[in-house]
Structures are given as C-alpha cells and as structure tokens.
Amino acid sequence: KEINSPLSKFPKFIKKKNYKLYDAYANTALHSIDLFDFFEMKFEDILFSQIDDNNFLCNFNSLTKFQKKKILCQIFLNSSPNKLWDEKMIFMYEKGQVIIKFNSPLFKKVSHKISIFNKSKNETKNISFKNKWCFNQQTLDFVNYIEKKNYFNLNSLSGKNCIKNYENIWKFYINKKNKI
Q: Using CA atoms, how far apart are residues 15 and 64, in angstroms rounded to an integer?
C-alpha cells in the first residue's frame, strides 16, 4: 500500500526510479538504526552499502561511550521472495562477533536469538530467552511503561538521527554507484 501525503516526501537526492526501494527498506532499516542508537552506538564511518531488490546491507564503524576503539557493525536486511523473515544485526569484533537474529513480529512466543562467536576458542554460544524477548513481550512491556507513566528519556532528536543515518547510507550507496 502506498501512502501519498506532504509529510511523506522523498529526499531530493533520491531519484524517482529508487522511490519504491527507498520506501521498501525505510521501516525495517530505521528500526535497526534505532536499535544501534538505543545501545548508544554512533555511526562513525560508513564503509560499504549495497541496496537492491533483495538486500539492504551496510557496514559501518561505530563507537560507544564505553569503548575506546571503533567496532565494525553491519545491518543486513533481506527482502526474500518467499517472504521469510531474515532480519539480524551483526557486531564484529577483532576476536569474535555477536549476531542478534530477530523473529517475525507475528511469532508471539518465540524469543529472538543471539549467537556469540569466540574466535580464539573457535566456539559459538547460542542464547534465547524463553518468551522474555519476543515481540509480544516487548509490546506488553511498552504498554506497561505507558500505563505507569514511566516514559523513556528520548526526544524527537533520536528519530531525526535515525533518518539522517538512513539517508547517509543511501547517499553513500548512490555516490559509490556513480563512481563506478
């Protein structure tokens, strides 16, 4: 479904041929970017971006207030023709990586999955939370916060930063494409 309104205009740097692609990934990508923002991980350098009908991929360096070194992060979104949900976040470190695999919001009682790979020991630890970290539980927790008037300390700048980062990924992709 396409919604046209004065509030949903595309950035000027997006060509008309890319409107559907930009719109197709906007919601999911913004949620992923928002999660990095929640972890207070700032986009430092975009290293790579690839956007097409099947995938949205962005590698970037990130820095948090707890780290002195930048870490390599990746957002990978898959637009599979068989409609499978394949959404994950990958945090890459020098000696391992952490992958958070998100389940479809329609899976109400299934936890997202975390895999932690330790390169020096060559082992992977898989973690799930038995209904504590599923979409349904997140929704219930959010409603409880609202009912208790225990709001988060976020403001509109958080949303603006997410949109700015999404647009910067697209700008990087467009500039890279134009150089080829």
A: 34
